Amino acid sequence: MANGAEKIGETSRAVTYRDDTTDLSPLDPAAIERLRPLFTHHPGPALLFDRSATAYGLNKAGVELAKNLVGDGGVTMMPQLVQLAVKARIAGTGMSRDVPMPGGRNRMEATVLPQADGTLLMLGRDSTLEASIRSALAESRTRFKDLVDLAADFAWETDADGSFTYISARGAIGFPPEALIGLRPREMLVDADGAPNRLPFDAIEPVRNVEAWLQAASGESCCLLISAAPIKASDGHHLGARGIAIDVTSERRQQTELAELKTRERLVQYILEALRGEVEPQQMLSSAARALARTTSAEGCVLRIHDRGDIVLEGRFGDLPDAADIDAACDRLMRDDAEREGSSADYRWLGNTGYHSGEPIGVMSVWRSQDSGDWGSEERRLLDAVEQHFAIAFRQIADQLQLERLSRTDELTGLSNRRAFFEDMGVSLLRCTRRDDNGALLYIDLDNFKPINDTLGHEAGDELLRKLGHCLLQGTRGYDLTARLGGDEFAVWLEGASTDLARRRAEQFVADIAALQGPTPKGAAPLGASVGIAMLRLENRASPTQKASHEGANEGPDAIGLLSQADQAMYQAKRKGKGRIQFFGDPA
Questions:
Q1: Which of 1, 46, 58, 155 is surrounded by the fewest CB atoms within 10 Å?
Q2: CB 59 within 8 A of CB 4
Q3: Of 301, 272, 304, 274, nearest to 389 (Cα)?
Q4: CA distance 420 to 442
Q5: Using 50, 70 and 90 to split pLDDT, how confident is the model at 130?
Q6: Residues 66, 55: contact at Cβ < 8 Å?
Q7: How does 43-76 read in b/e, with b if 16+ C-beta sit within 10 Å?
């Protein structure tokens, strides 16, 4: 036994811890041998360190470890054991530390126990599995944290009362974690009244991807997609809930904007179809006004087309304020610095201006009563969306009306041409027939006009004809018809006029035309006019068949017949000496 003990001592001596106040003599091998049976069944290495830090193995594992401590394996392990031993000796109590075994693949939990004789008993226990478990657990926690961070914006827990007890380190929707602890999520809801009785934060069963709108730290609304599971005690008692939340505000707003855009596109298409579904310009504007009012939830709508500052056409629909309020709003919209909305005494309006080639071409305005509330952003965006379409349509309608005016207008005088005069007069005759009303057709032919052209030139003659056209327009009402039939021949239709009114107008025209004369060519007679008048009489009115249809609305027999009668009367006036008037049917 002694030899065995000596052998153990010879192969287990390690780094010596030196203490001048301590007896440094080696331990008695016999004493070591007596200790060994006590540690035969110890599952780990058992060693005894003497006062010089020499290690003696007390069991098979301890002998093997003592050998390794003497070799290269002790380079990393022995300093840690010595440090632990010194601490335990100073403290006078046992201490433990997890240290790597020689070779570095396994680990051992070393417990050092100071003895009364100054030696140190070290008992080892294989902690490789526990260390692996701890490492795996730490790695698992890190992995879980990373996955949570990647899968959600924050994790949370609530207690049985529904208050936050945990918020992950990054915080939530702009709040630091500590600001939310103890706060109830329901207090953060944007619309608490419209929220369900049980939120996912109070989950009593697993829920996934439940939306909730909460107020963020910035004061803005924030949409969270929440998944949660309940927390229950062993007896099934509800302790709270835990889960994750993803901020999907940006996605929801994009989805909302996309949905609004699609809806807006459908509404714009509906408005444009109403605008393009008609042929007549007036019907186009009226249909578009109705469609625009309905799509904006307005009570009325006004569309106006302008050309060089003048209103050329207007379409209206629905309940609208007085004309003065509409004019004021449209005038504001036509200014470059115009405001887009305003109000009158009883109405609110919202409008937009259509521009074509940089110039305002028209305005659109929608109206609602004051108690209907303010206009919304979607209504403004809808007007913006149709603005360019309306501007193009306004320009096309204005051009169409201009072409129609040019095709129906005498270029020199601005009066109706012959074709337009007969078309409009046919409609007027039907109207007079339905009403049993009167009318008078004046056929005006200039006297002594040719010498002016021959002597002073065509420019002087043209200027005189332009003045005559202005004179006729000034001497008639807005619904009367005036036309240049050709050359120096003119016609005026006075709807509803009596014989006396026709006579007074004709006499005034004769006087006004005579006053137009400028310098008279030498030897030429002064400028004048002869006027023949044909009155609408019973025998000249449309038949019942013509009343039911629109035949005669163009160059029908009534218009042509009256013009023929007026022409004959005009020649009678010339034969009587010119510069006078003559009614058809009066004695020659």
A1: 1
A2: no
A3: 272
A4: 16
A5: confident
A6: yes
A7: ebbbbbbbbbbbbbbbbebbbebbbbbbeebbee
Structure tokens at 289: 């006004």
Q: Which helix (H) or strand (E) holds 97?
A: strand 95-100
Residue reference for tokens 């259509």: 354
Mean pLDDT of 540-561: 50
Contact at 8 Å (CB) between 528 and 578? Answer: yes
pTM: 0.50
DSSP string, 26-42: PPPHHHHHHHGGGGTT-
The torsion angles phi and psi of 27, rounded to 5 degrees, stand at: -75, 155
**310-318 and 207-215 beta bridge pairing:** unpaired
For helices 281-295 and 377-408, angle between their N-to-C axes, nearest 10 degrees? 180
What confidence tens digit (pLDDT) does each residue in 188-238 have?
Answer: 999 888 788 889 999 999 999 999 999 999 999 999 999 999 999 989 899
* Rounded Cα distance, 354 and 389, in Å: 9
Q: Say if CB 480 and CB 493 are below 8 A apart.
A: yes
The string over 423-436, giving b where at least 16 C-beta atoms fall within 10 Å of a residue's C-beta and e elsewhere, is bbbbebbbebbeee
Residue 168 in tokens: 């992950």
